[in-house]
Records
---
Amino acid sequence: MKRIAYPYLLWILIFTIIPLLLVLYFAFTTGDSQNFNTFNLSLENFKKFFTPIYLKVLLKSINLALVSTILCLVIGYPLAYIISREKPKNRNTMILMFIIPMWMNFLLRTYAWLTLLGRNGLVNTVLARLGLPVLDLMFNDKAVMLGMVYNFLPFMVLPIYSVLTKIDKRLLEASEDLGADVATTFKRVIFPLSIPGVITGITMVFVPAMSTFVISSLLGGNKANLIGNLIEQQFRWTGDWHFGSSMSIILMIFILITMAITSRFDKDKEEGGRLW
Amino acid sequence: MRKVKSYILILVSLMLIFTVGCGDDRPSINVFNWGDYIDTDVIKEFEEEFGIKVNYSTYETNEDMYIRLKQGGSSYDVVIPSDYMIERMIREGMLSKLNKDNIPNLSNVDEAFLNLDYDPDNDYSVPYMWGTVGIIYNKTMVDEPVDSWDILWDEKYDDQIIMLNSQRDSLAVALKRLGYSMNTRDVVELEEARDELIKQRPLVYAYLGDQVKYTMIGGEAAIAVVWSGDAVAMIRENPDLEFAIPKEGTNLWFDSMVIPNSAKNKEGAEAFINFMARPDIAARNTEYIGYSTPITEAIEMLPDYIRNSKVAYPDPEDIKNTEIFKDPADIVEVYDRIWTEIHSN
């Protein structure tokens, strides 16, 4: 059995571990990115990052990613719950309808928002027809947030949905038998049991929201630079791979910390669940 | 079940046929160009005439292209960078000398576009298009005369201004407005320009690349900084738009075809460059993209509205106040830093 694992180990080595080490190496050196001979060990990149300009960008990214994640949770949880309560046949159709847009290219879907949100876009045309004031919907932080929620919502709904459908119905019956009303059953049985799905959902939304650069550049009009844009800039335009790598490392550390915090939250709840 | 099987069979055989069709053994060249900057019919014609397959891909800015070439990994046979970038690539030994015997059409190029500072003997480059940078504005939203970069800082046009998402061009606008050279090597002047651009940020609707065309044609913003050739194409689509070259002066630029060192099919590349400099081809290409051709005979073949356009072919006195970008060379990092600072604010 173990032998089957070797190809995967090799895969991880080539495509995860070696690239990660390279990124680390680049992050802690300076020099001409194209010429290994010029590399010098240094903390210069990190020093450069921890200045107000870049920290502000990091804070903004965290802020936008957090709000988008919360919005996804608030919108996604009830949706997952409603779908999970349907008969299996309806359920599958509903989930299918929900993920069909995901079969289309991500970039294309984001571009579509440009025609909807523009000053003379569909939304504003409708508003104007109804005699309502025209809104500034595009090229601002709200547009970026909308893009994130729209694109990442399925990543929140699907894990929650799959956990909710697997909840043992007998537990719900037991709760009812013991006199709990619907709200109490939800609060004390369903929600605690769905926490693993919520945690997965949060990480699956937060991580891409934190590092996206396409959404902020398309819907934000390159005005709302996020950390993803800064990293992209270093690799694509400036060519300072060292600084780009060090920002990637910082982003990674940050994501690791948030994941550690959320998973701790998860464990506590699970233990609490068992105790109960 | 049998039906399904036969469908699959048909599908597989179709796929086989197509893959066999794709495996064409024609020689090929990789052409790397700015987005939206060629008439694709011209490429097809080249392929048919020379039996050389063209793999065409695009980039957004000079800096983008430069990094992609530097990274290696992919090799390109023809690239079309701008003046200052060509200067830098020559300096860094990234370009290969042209065999001018293979490019007789170089003689079609107007002398005004030859032997310029960035490539003194045209050993490396053949001019493709040229133009200026100016302000395009929508007459229904702007009713004052536009003749100065100042309008881009006018609070009246809050959220109505679109800037180019391009380092050198944005800095050039600010530097010119301040009365400095757009090739300044003075950090203080650059930082002043940076501060101006940061001050301008709240008024800016968006920083766009090619997207600016659709946004301005659709009347979604009042004013934008654009390249002259794009202005020609935009005015063609929306007659409310008008183009102006500010009195403080602007950038005069040239995009030229070059062959990188890493080219695998140099003869093919030279054939392509020669083909693009052929008057009839240059004329068709120019008509399609709207930019200004340096090929004298091609201008005569253009439809009147382009040939007489003062946007594409301005009077000499309109562009006497222009500057050509120079490679910042050793202070390229200062430019990069300034640009990042503008964008992170």
---
Amino acid sequence: MTISAEPRHLDARYDVLVVGAGPAGMAAAIGAREMGADSVLLVDRERDPGGILLQCIHSGFGLHAFKEEITGPEYAERFFEQVLDHEVDVLTDAFVMDVTAERRVKLMSPSVGVTTVDAGAVVLAMGARERTRGAIHIPGDRPSGVMTAGLAQKMVNLEGYLPGRRAVILGSGDIGLIMARRLTLEGVEVVGVFELLAHPSGLGRNIVQCLEDFDIPLHLSTTVVGIHGRDRLERLTVAPVDDQRQPLMDRAWDVDCDTLLLSIGLIPDAELARDLGARMDPLTGGPMVSSTMETSLPGVFAAGNVVHVNDLADWVSQEARVAGEAAGALSTGRMRPLEDIRLLPGDNVGYVVPHTISSDHTQTVSFRVRKPIYGDTQLRLGEVHRRKLKAAVPAEMITIKVGPHLLEGFTGDALRVDAVPFDAEADAPSDAVGGER
Amino acid sequence: MADSTTETAVYLCTGCPLGCRLEVDAVAGDVIEVRGHTCKRGERYGRQEYLDPRRPLSTTVWVRGARVARLPVRSAESVPRDRLVEVAEALRGVCVDAPVRRGQVVLADVAGTGVDVIASRSLEPVG
């Protein structure tokens, strides 16, 4: 079977149109077909479907979706086989330029030119992009050799170029950690990983298998304060920071290197949603969504990293399937669930998705803590639900399933989500608050 | 129970993204108990990590006649942790021709480890 597909023809109207064929978009397209959408078009700007999965050659994907651990390209290909099995039309090498609130989609590609397609529902699944040097204002020269970790990943894993010979990585996010290992295996010397915060931003497993396995030093509470080099990067100045994150320049030192990879966070690639006029969440940078991942504009859904940056592709796919199913259901004329409870980030919670929930069905609520708690942690969903966790760190997204039984008898219009250190007395279990795992 | 002859090693399980903290009790080089795991894979991981640490390896090789320059490959099973770099080096000169099928063996018994390296992606030939 072939991995790339072109629609035999492009229809003027589709029940559901999905923007982006990564782990979110592919799952949304499948979900839409399964819930009854007759025609689904999946559009991607790259020539091969799969999105960023194609350059994520490491394992760690598929534990939920396929019940085994596989690599990114395998996850993409197996998902895409399901997309084709579900008779989804696929248009790659096509760029969505504009979506209107009436769900008229303008797209451009070498095969169809500039054309307009009407959709009963649209699912936005554009993913996220990397923050760059400009986002953190590193002073110094502007030589070549300074790039985001994901760009280096694309160069190494798809295009066959090495970014340099001696590299430093700023930021301990997962992509940076994975690139530290990747460059080491390709014979590039990785001098060290520098992290502004006092704790790593990436998953614990990646600290072990990407840094410790290769004796790559991780410098916490330390950052890059100077970039030096005329044409090519020659040297960095790094310095420890105090607890206000201010560099201690008297303790700065220099590091010789020709490459600096930035792994300093992702931001939702949400311009289409913003241009559309969807309500945006300043905490996530993505659109606000209901429990079925519908934005503030009826019939326009969004899911995956375009809504909030997830830890795992598997979770992106799960969330996008919800969006696709709801988009598909809408096309068959089914009613939306009544959606009348707002979720608010409370104590030590950075953001919560979705932004509203319904007492009609079971939904997954995802959030991140702001500050790490390295010990028993109490999660609270207003007064209706409590759960104890062993720890809670910003690097790991937390999810709770909220079903109708939890919301029975709740008469308010908003619930606060808190994640605070466990206090045995105040948090004594009570029979009145049911919990589910 | 731990006693004077018991040695306890602490690992962070890399078996999945959960990252459970494992404690492995061993007496005279034999694992007698694994604690802290939340699944069967975790218990196996703790035992293996103490006796013979292994990791899955992913890297890329050259591919001719496809739309991309590199073919992603992975070890069919985990390889000894201490030989990861050696295995990656053994794959550095390898070049395959499109078409490639996902799962196809790219290099058998890489670096004498007894482990095959397989393609992680299918690639069609381009004209």
